[in-house]
Amino acid sequence: MMPTDESKKYTVLVVEDEDNIALALDYLLTREGYAHDRVANGADALPRIRDLRPDLVLLDVMLPEMSGYEICQAMRLDPALAAIRILMMTARGSAIERKKGLALGADGFISKPFELAELRAEVRRLLED
Predict the structure, then answer these.
(1) Domains of the chain (ranges plus CATH)?
(2) Do residues 105 and 73 touch, judged by C-beta distance below 8 A?
(3) Which end of the chain is more exposed for a tag (fewer CB within 10 A), N or C?
(4) What pLDDT sits at residue 90?
(5) CA angle, residues 103, 113, 87, in degrees to nearest 5
(6) Which long-range CB contacts under 8 A does 90-94 form with residues at least 24 apart?
């Protein structure tokens, strides 16, 4: 079945260095019908985001070379990337972490380990707003 304009195929970029989490996300995103890609390193994230122009970035906070917070902030300061939705993911889901992510411009925040149903609902909320 060809997607119609109404059922636009959204593109999601996963920025996650842990393979097991990336695999779970790959499974979920494939099942939901989203086009998606992954980078495992913070330094690779911004160039990939510029190339791909995804509708949503699933962004881990703790990454090699550049943190999710730095990536989030850089995206919000770049007019070409500022409208892209960001869902931050962290294993340290404290209120302070959440506040910091949202203050830097994240659209949502989810704690790891997450329930797939919770993540699916959050991804849908951000893409279909």
Answers:
(1) 11-127 (3.40.50.2300)
(2) yes
(3) N
(4) 87
(5) 30
(6) 90/60, 90/61, 90/62, 91/62, 92/61, 92/62
DSSP string covering the chain? ----STT---EEEEE-S-HHHHHHHHHHHHHHT-EEEEE-SHHHHHHHHHHH--SEEEEESS-SSS-HHHHHHHHHHSTTTTTSEEEEEES---HHHHHHHHHTT-SEEEESS--HHHHHHHHHHHH--
User: Residue 5's pLDDT is what?
Assistant: 46
Which pair of structure tokens corresponds to residue 43?
């330094």
Mean pLDDT by 10 residues, the chain (129 residues): 58 96 94 96 97 97 95 97 96 81 93 89 92
Give the H or E element holding residue 35.
strand 35-39
What is the model's pTM? 0.91
pLDDT score recorded for residue 93: 62
Distance CA 12, CA 23 (A): 14
Dist. CA 61–CA 15, nearest whole Å = 9
